[in-house]
Amino acid sequence: MSKMILLIQRMFNFIRFDIWRITEYELSKTRKFAYRSIKTLILAVRGFVAEDLNVKASALTYSILFAIVPLFALIIAIGKGFGVEKLIEDSLQGTFIGQANMIPPVMGFVERYLESTQGGIFIGIGLAVLFWSVMNFFMQVESAFNKIWQVKKSRSILSQFTTYFSAILILPLFIVLSSGISIFINTALSQSFLYDILSPLVRFSVIIAPFFINWIMFTIMYMVIPNTRVRFFNAMVAGVVAGTAFQVFQMLYIHGQVYLSRYNVVYGSFAAVPLLLLWLQISCLIVLLGAEISYASQNIQNFEYEMDTNNISTRYKNFLTLFITHIVVKQFEEQKPPISSEDIAIQYKLPIRIVNQILTKLIEVSVLTEVHNEVSKTKIVQPAIDINQLTVSLLYSKLENYGSELFLSNKNELLDSFWQKTLDLKKQEELVTEKILVKDI
């Protein structure tokens, strides 16, 4: 029993502390993949709980209920422009096959919605409501993704409009393409003499096609929606995980409706409504979990040495601050290109999290300045003070004096006397370092 408890404690300590102290530079390719996967899963679950994504999923469910009819109407209206509205309607019904009971009334609402916007003064009001409903839904989705990615600023209204409605214009073409592939597999290829030879491959293609389409759609969604740069690989990882989870949930939901027949006894025809809400809620949870995975996989390095960084001693932080300042100053003195936080972390094998914290502080106290590199699209740092005047004493003085002081209004002779003594002690310490330049260490 004691061995089991000891094993559990070791596993907990490994997941909580040790795994974050192992950088990718120290691992083989196989172990690197395994450790990245474990870290991504831990960070995604932690973000899911900490950010209360269940509440965000409920808010998105509420937004979808308002936007679903206008959104379908807009997609079908675009499809009519290309003459493929019937194909799009069939594809939408196939996509939401788990909501077979709700699709006919929703499609009826869509038809009446489109008819009501084709004449009279209502055309202007109807189109305005349609566009606003769709825009509001996408804005809610972007807001949820931005919070996960810790992005403070959303796109401008014009940028949102062009991005989202460009996606809506492309979506019908994507639906037609995916439907065309299915039709080709089921009809044209089945009549070919190669069908018997390729039959196992065809059956496998029919099974995997919905998964593949979900992977593409989720990957694009995770790349486009957040108002920040998301790398393709990280979006793809999240897209594959979330797309697979969504398709598996669809299959389980469809088969599980047989066991939910008791809802029909209690609610009658109204049973489709709570089931729709349940389906939307879980679907939104899957989408948001995928966003957490994409964020975690792209920012794993920010959490290396996380516990140690949060509990770092003042002495060691001062040492790292001096070291990083020295690196930037020497780079400038030797007329080398300015360096970024990522370069410092990789080159000197330092945790990116603490490098960013220290650089942010040094920029705040005007020891360093930040410049945006238009070529590499990265932020680089360089000295903001003449390096021939930047002494160790001046550096620590700027760091220690930054912020408010002497804000206590009550006069206290002992306090004032002690303050003066500490200043005198500080001056004695500075005598040692006031002539030592950071670049000469």
Describe this protein's structure.
It is a single chain. This protein is 72% helix and 3% strand. It has 441 residues and is mainly alpha-helical. The chain folds into three domains: 2-47, no CATH class; 51-301, no CATH class; 306-404 and 411-440, Orthogonal Bundle (Arc Repressor Mutant, subunit A). Helix 3 packs across helix 7 and helix 14 crosses helix 15. The protein starts with a helix and ends in an 8-residue tail after the last helix. The model has no long low-confidence stretch (mean pLDDT 75).
Core attributes:
441 residues; mainly alpha; Arc Repressor Mutant, subunit A; 3 domains; 3-stranded antiparallel sheet; 17 helices; 3 strands
Distance between the termini: 55 Å
* Tally of strands: 3
The domain count comes to 3
Gross morphology: elongated
- Largest sheet entry: 3 strands, antiparallel
Q: Kindly state the mean pLDDT as a whole number?
A: 75
> What percentage of residues falls in helices of 4 or more residues?
over 70%
Uncertain spans: none
- Using only CA atoms, what is the Rg? 29 Å
Given helix and strand content, the structural type is: mainly alpha
Order of helices and strands: HHHHHHHHHHHHHEHHEEHH
Number of helices: 17
In what order do the strands lie side by side in the largest sheet?
A: 1-3-2
